Amino acid sequence: MNRAEALKIVERQLTKKRYEHTVRVMETALDIAGHYQVDRQKVELAAIFHDYAKYRHPEEMKRWIIQEKLPHDLLEYHQELWHGPVGSVMIEREVGISDPEIQSAIYWHTTGKRNMTLMDKIIFIADYVEPGREFAGVEEVRGLVFENIDRACWLAARNTIQFLMGKEQPVYPDTFQLYNEKIGRNMNG
Ligand SMILES: Nc1ncnc2c1ncn2[C@@H]1O[C@H](COP(=O)(O)OP(=O)(O)O)[C@@H](O)[C@H]1O
Question: Per its UniProt entry, what is the enzyme's top EC class, as one word (predicted)?
Answer without folding.
Answer: hydrolase
